[in-house]
C-alpha cells in the first residue's frame, strides 16, 4: 500500500515472529482493549482522517472473546465512516473476512458468527472460495452454486460489492475448462433488483503454496480503488474491475519472480541441509518443511516495480447470462 | 528501508497510536521477554539470515528494567554477528543510541548506563549532538569540544565508526559560520593511532521541528551502506561518506516537500479550527499544538522517489587538521 502511495496507519492484531504457515511461531495477540486503546489514541490527537478502512486477520484471542475484537474493530470502522474525508460519499470500508482456506478454518469458531454479524458495515468484502462458502452456507462445486453463493452473500448481508479472490473453476466436475489450470477471480455488484452484476478475471495458476497472497490482494485492491476514485471521482462500482485487473497483474508478476527466487534459494540451501548431522527423520522433515516455506516467502519489496507498473495484462470479462443457472438469469 | 530494496524484519519495542511528539499517546511497550521471544521465534524457524542489525527507540519499560531490554536486544545482536551472511566479514551492527535531544533525555535515566555498556558491540553509532555529549561526558560548544567528544567516544567504547547526525556549528560562539544556518553531520572513523579521521557534510537547516528524522537518518544510512557494500564489496569505512551524502540529499528533499505540504495543510485546517466552539484557552492551545504537529508529519511515502533518487547534491568534505584543536592534530 505504501509503494502505491498510501500513508497507512496499522492497528496490529498480532505481533508474531513469522506467519503461521511455518506451523510454529512466537509472539502475542492484541487484546480487544489494546486495539480499542490505539484507536482512541488516534482520536484524541485528531489523527483519524483516513480515506479507507481495511480489516484483516483477527484470530482467536487468549484473554478475550474474538467477537469482542471484531466488535471493537468495527467500532473503529463505524466511527471512520462518519468522518470528513475527500471520499466521504464513496468512502469504502473493505473487509477481508479472514477465516480459513481450502476447506479448513484457521481462526477460532467464534470468529465466524462475529463476521456474519458485522459484514453489513462493509462496502466491499474479499472472501476466498472457502470463506464465501462459510458466509453463504452454500458449497461451491459449480458455476451455478458459485452464482448462488454470491447472490446469497449480497442479500443476506446487504453488502453491495463482493470479490471472491480465488476459485478453481477447472475443478468443478461440470466445467468445460478442465484442461487449463486457472485461478478465477469473480467480482460482483448487487443490482437494484437484488441480482448480481458479475465480472471474472482468469489468471494462470502457479504451482506453489504462497502465504499472504490474500493480504496482498486486499492491500493492492484498496490502494488501486483509492487511486481510481481519487483520479476520476468515479464510484466504487465502475472502478472495481479495473482495480482487480491491475491487482492481479501485479500479483502474477511478483509471484512469478518469487517462484524463480524460490528455486534459486532451494538449490543454494540444499547442500547445507544434507550436511546437517545428527537429525532424526522427523526433525529432517520439519527442517525441510521450514526450508521450503521460507524459500516460498513472497518477494514483495524487491519486486516493488511490478506493484507500481505490472508488465502483464489480464482481461476482465462480464460473466454472461448463459453462464448463470436458470433461476439467476 | 523497504523503498531502497531491503526486506526488513521489525521487532517493535513499542506499540503506540502515534509518535510521542504529540505529547499524548496510547498503547503499550514491549517487555524484554516479548522481544526475546520474537527473536527466538525467528531462530527456531531458521529465519535469521540478516545482513544488518539496526537498533532504535528502546524507552523505559513498565514491567522490566530498561537495561534488560537492551541486554536482550544485544543478545539478539551478538547472535546475528555469528551467522553466515554475504556480509559476514563486514557485517555492520548499527546502533542509534536514542536517549534524547536538545538537552533533554526522553528515555528513563537507566537507559543511559545500559547504552554505555553495550556500545562496544556496535560497528557504527548514530548519536545526535546531545547523545554524543551524554556518551562522551563532554559538552559540545565549539569545534574543539566536538572533536574531543568524538575522540572520547572512539576510545571509551572502542566503536570504530561514529556519525553525529546533527550539529549546529553556527551556534558555537567562536564559529566563523554564524551567518549561515546549517545543520552539520560529522562522520568519523578511528585511525590506528586512536585519532579520528573526520568528514563533514553541511545541509541547510529547515525552520520546522520534525519528528522521526533521527529514525529516517538511521534507516536510510543502513540501506545505503548495505547497497554500497553489496555493490562494490568495499568496506564500511570507504562507503560511509558516500552513504551519508545520499541520505542527507534524500532527507532534504523529503523535508522540503513536507514543509510545503505542511503549509498547505495549515491553511486548509485553519478555518475549521476557528469555528470549533466552546473550547477553553488551554484546550485551544492544545488543539493548535496537535494541529501543527500533525501538519509537520514527515511525508515519507508520497515522496518515495526522493528516497530512491534524491535530486539535490551535498558534498562530503574532509574535516581539515587546522579545524581541530592543537592536541588532536
UniProtKB/TrEMBL annotation, chains A, B:
Catalytic activity, EC: 2.7.1.35
Gene Ontology cellular component annotations, sorted alphabetically: cytosol
Matching Pfam families: Phos_pyr_kin (PF08543)
Gene3D superfamilies registered for this protein in UniProt: 3.40.1190.20
Chain intervals with Basic and acidic residues compositional bias: 273-289
InterPro entries registered for this protein in UniProt: PM/HMP-P_kinase-1 (IPR013749), PyrdxlKinase (IPR004625), Ribokinase-like (IPR029056)
GO biological process: pyridoxal 5'-phosphate salvage
Keyword field: ATP-binding, Kinase, Nucleotide-binding, Transferase
Positions of the UniProt region annotated as Disordered: 268-289
One Gene Ontology term of the molecular function aspect: pyridoxal kinase activity
Protein family: Belongs to the pyridoxine kinase family.
Cited PANTHER family: PYRIDOXAL KINASE (PTHR10534)
Name of this chain's protein: pyridoxal kinase
Source organism of the structure: Aspergillus novofumigatus (strain IBT 16806)
Lineage of origin: Eukaryota, Fungi, Dikarya, Ascomycota, Pezizomycotina
Amino acid at each position: 500500500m505504501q509503494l502505491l502511495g498510501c500513508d497507512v496507519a496499522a492497528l496490529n492484531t498480532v505481533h508474531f515472529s513469522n506467519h503461521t504457515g511455518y506451523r510454529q511461531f512466537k509472539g502475542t495477540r492484541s487484546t480487544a482493549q489494546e486495539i480499542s486503546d490505539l484507536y482512541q489514541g488516534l482520536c484524541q490527537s485528531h489523527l483519524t482522517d483516513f480515506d479507507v478502512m481495511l480489516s484483516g486477520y483477527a484470530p482467536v484471542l487468549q484473554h478475550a472473546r474474538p467477537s469482542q475484537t471484531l466488535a471493537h474493530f468495527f467500532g473503529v470502522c463505524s466511527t471512520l465512516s462518519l468522518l470528513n474525508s475527500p471520499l466521504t460519499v464513496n468512502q469504502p470500508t473493505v473487509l477481508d473476512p479472514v477465516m480459513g482456506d481450502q476447506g479448513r478454518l484457521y481462526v477460532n469458531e467464534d470468529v465466524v458468527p462475529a463476521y456474519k454479524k458485522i459484514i453489513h458495515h462493509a462496502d466491499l468484502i474479499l472472501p476466498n472460495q472457502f470463506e464465501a462458502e462459510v458466509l453463504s452456507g452454500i458449497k461451491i462445486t459449480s458455476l451455478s452454486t458459485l452464482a448462488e453463493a454470491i447472490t446469497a452473500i449480497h442479500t443476506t448481508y446487504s453488502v453491495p460489492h463482493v470479490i471472491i479472490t480465488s476459485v478453481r473453476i477447472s475443478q468443478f466436475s461440470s466445467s468445460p475448462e478442465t484442461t487449463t489450470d486457472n485461478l478465477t477471480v469473480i467480482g460482483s455488484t448487487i443490482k437494484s433488483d437484488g441480482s448480481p452484476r458479475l465480472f471474472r478475471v482468469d489468471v494462470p495458476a502457479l504451482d506453489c503454496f504462497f502465504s499472504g497472497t490474500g493480504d496482498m490482494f486486499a492491500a493492492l485492491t484498496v490502494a488501486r480503488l483509492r487511486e481510481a476514485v481519487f483520479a476520476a471521482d468515479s464510484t466504487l462500482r465502475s472502478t472495481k474491475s479495473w482495480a482487480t485487473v491491475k491487482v492481479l497483474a501485479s500479483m502474477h508478476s511478483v509471484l512469478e519472480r518469487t517462484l524463480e527466487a524460490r528455486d534459486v534459494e532451494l538449490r543454494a540451501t540444499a547442500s547445507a541441509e544434507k550436511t546437517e548431522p545428527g537429525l532424526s527423520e522427523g526433525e529432517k522433515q520439519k527442517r525441510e518443511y521450514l526450508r521450503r516455506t521460507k524459500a516460498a516467502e513472497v518477494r514483495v519489496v524487491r519486486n516493488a516495480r511490478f506493484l507500481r507498473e505490472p508488465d502483464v495484462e489480464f482481461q476482465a470479462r462480464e460473466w454472461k447470462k448463459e453462464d448463470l443457472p436458470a433461476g439467476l438469469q
